[in-house]
Amino acid sequence: MEIVILPDAAEVGRVAASVIADVVARKPDGVIGLATGSSPLAIYEELSRRADAGELNFSRTRGFALDEYVGLPFDHPESYHAVIDRTVTRPLGLDPALVSVPDGLADDIPAACAAYEAAIAAAGGIDVQILGIGANGHIGFNEPTSSLSSRTRIKTLTPKTRADNARFFDSAEAVPTHCVTQGLGTILDAKRLVLVAQGSGKAEAVAAAVEGPLSASCPASVLQLHEHATVIVDEAAASRLH
Ligand code: F6R
C-alpha cells in the first residue's frame, strides 16, 4: 500500500485527481468506481476543471457508483443517483447511459445486486475505484463486521453512519436505515484503489486501516490485501499514523 501525506485537503483532491486522470488518459473507455460523500468532491471538481479545459474527455468512460440508499426515490436530492448525476456525470461530461448506480428501489434487491455485479464484470471490471472512509472505518457502506469477501448486497447502516450523514438531510430520522453497497470483495476486484481522507475526524480510521490488523472491525483494512492501493490523506487525517 502506498501512503501519500499532503499538507491540505485541496492538495489531496489535486493529487488523487491526477491518478484518475492518468487512467482515463491511457484508457478513455475505462471504468471508474465512484464514491459519494464529501471526501471525493475535490477530485471531481479538479477532473471537471480538466475536462472543461479540454485536457481530458470522459465521454466514453464508464462509471459504477459504490452504493445507494434503500427506499429513496432517484430524484430525491440526496439519493446517490441524484448526487452522482449532480457532482460527477454532468460536471465531468460522462454519458449518463454509461453511469450505473445500485438500485435501492428494486422489488427484488438481491437480484438487482447480482445484476450490478454482472454489469461490472461485463464492463471488464473497474480500472480505478475512488474511495472515502467512514469515521468507523467503513468503505462503501461496508460497516464494521462486514465480511471481507462480501459482494454487492443490502446492508443496515449503523447509528454512527446515519448520524454522520444526517448533515445531508433535514433530520437524523430522515436518513435511510438501509443501503445497497458494493461488497469488500467487489472493491478488492478493482485493478487500482485510491482512498482519500481529510481532517482529524478520519485520523483513527486511517490509522486502523493502514497500520492496524486486517480485520472486519475496520473494513478499510482490506486495502492491505490489494496490490495497487494508494491512500492519499492530509496531515490532519494522517495525525494518528506512526
Ligand atoms: C460513499 C461511501 C462512503 C463514504 C464515507 C465517507 O459512497 O462509500 O464510504 O466515502 O462515508 O463519507 P464522507 O466523505 O462524506 O466523509
From TrEMBL:
Keywords: Allosteric enzyme, Carbohydrate metabolism, Hydrolase. The keyword Hydrolase applies. Belongs to the glucosamine/galactosamine-6-phosphate isomerase family. NagB subfamily. It comes from Gryllotalpicola koreensis. The record marks 146, 153, 155-156 as: Part of the allosteric site. Transmembrane segments: none annotated. Pathway: Amino-sugar metabolism; N-acetylneuraminate degradation; D-fructose 6-phosphate from N-acetylneuraminate: step 5/5. The active site is at 67 (proton acceptor), 136 (for ring-opening step), 138 (proton acceptor), 143 (for ring-opening step). It catalyses: alpha-D-glucosamine 6-phosphate + H2O = beta-D-fructose 6-phosphate + NH4(+). Residues 10-229 form the Glucosamine/galactosamine-6-phosphate isomerase domain. Its EC number is 3.5.99.6. Allosterically activated by N-acetylglucosamine 6-phosphate (GlcNAc6P). Catalyzes the reversible isomerization-deamination of glucosamine 6-phosphate (GlcN6P) to form fructose 6-phosphate (Fru6P) and ammonium ion. This is Glucosamine-6-phosphate deaminase. The lineage of its organism: Bacteria, Bacillati, Actinomycetota, Actinomycetes, Micrococcales.
